[in-house]
Design goal:
Blueprint lengths: L12 H14 L10 H34 L3 H4 L7 H9 L2 H6 L2 H10 L11 H14 L5 H36 L14 H11 L8 H8 L7 E2 L2 E2 L11 H17 L1 H11 L6 H23 L8
Antiparallel strand pairs: 1-2
């Protein structure tokens, strides 16, 4: 971008070297600080976990489309989640006609066996199967050959999800072992487990690289652009999303966990949630993540244990 200010320069190695030298002479170029090998090792694991999460998300989106084609009312009317063990087994092994015609006790036994005997909770299994049969009767019917093709594709998609989830579990064990080698107090925060801690720590590296928490927020891309002209200043501006996308991802995921498990951040989240009529959840989540950056910087720079305010 600095080179763009020279509108008539050609592109060759000599010119590039000269522009780099001129940029350094111009100032505002800080010495880079490479993270230690310990952080790089943890970063390798947490970034791979990020990729696994993206794969699982994509496969689940693909599966939901196929589930709609096979059993159009399942997602809306099913008494249990789409990606539970019982749901996937049912969708892989039964057609709509079979769900409707199968004896209610036989269907209940199948679901019970494929849910590790945990399906329903306080809800009677007969009530669950009755609701399932009703949803099957009201769903759009496909021709048998189309239904078979969709079922096969859906089964392979479920296999992908199961594989990625098993890889995710293996990676969590490795991640926890690696995290123990790094001294930090971030994990003492209510709602921040080892996975989120590792993701944040590995991307930040040495906290002394940052002079203040605003620098850390800028590095994560949790800053907002300004739009001002004359006496007008826009109230709604866009998140910059520049900087480290992995750190931003783990900070936002942390905010999502904090809004559930941490009373202080829960109240802040709902305060921001109720301030606007649209984009309520996304806005409140990102603002909560930005607030959390201050705590992350304080804990890591001071080495203190988290003490919630009373």
């Amino acid at each position: 971008n600095f080179k763009k200010s020279y509108t008539d320069l050609p592109k060759n190695d000599n010119v590039d070297a000269w522009v780099i030298a001129d940029r350094i002479r111009f100032g505002r170029v800080e010495n880079s600080s490479s993270p230690e090998a310990l952080y790089r090792a943890l970063r390798q694991i947490t970034r791979h976990k990020f990729k696994l999460a993206q794969h699982i998300k994509a496969e689940k989106a693909r599966a939901l489309n196929l589930v709609f084609l096979k059993f159009s009312d399942f997602t809306q009317k099913s008494p249990f989640g789409t990606f539970t063990k019982a749901s996937m087994a049912l969708l892989e092994n039964y057609t709509l006609r079979e769900i409707v015609n199968t004896d209610i006790h036989e269907l209940a036994e199948f679901l019970h066996q494929n849910s590790n005997n945990r399906l329903g909770g306080s809800t009677p299994i007969e009530k669950i199967t009755t609701a399932l049969k009703k949803a099957a009767r009201n769903s759009y019917r496909l021709k048998p050959e189309i239904d078979q093709a969709i079922t096969q594709t859906l089964s392979m998609t479920f296999d992908n999800i199961r594989f990625y989830q098993s890889q995710n579990k293996r990676l969590k064990k490795v991640l926890k072992r690696q995290l123990k080698a790094i001294p930090q107090t971030l994990i003492t925060v209510d709602g921040i487990g080892p996975v989120l801690t590792a993701g944040i720590i590995s991307e930040i590296g040495d906290i002394n690289r940052f002079d203040k928490e605003t620098n850390l927020a800028s590095y994560a891309g949790l800053t907002w652009s300004q739009y001002q002209s004359g006496s007008f200043t826009a109230e709604e501006t866009h998140l910059t999303k520049k900087g480290n996308k992995y750190l931003r991802y783990y900070l936002v995921e942390a905010a999502n966990s904090l809004r559930v498990h941490n009373d202080r951040y829960k109240s802040y989240y709902y305060k921001k949630y109720n301030e606007v009529p649209k984009h309520k959840h996304k806005r409140a989540l990102v603002l909560t993540a930005r607030k959390f950056v201050r705590l992350v910087f304080a804990l890591l720079s001071k080495g203190e244990i988290y003490q919630p305010r009373r």
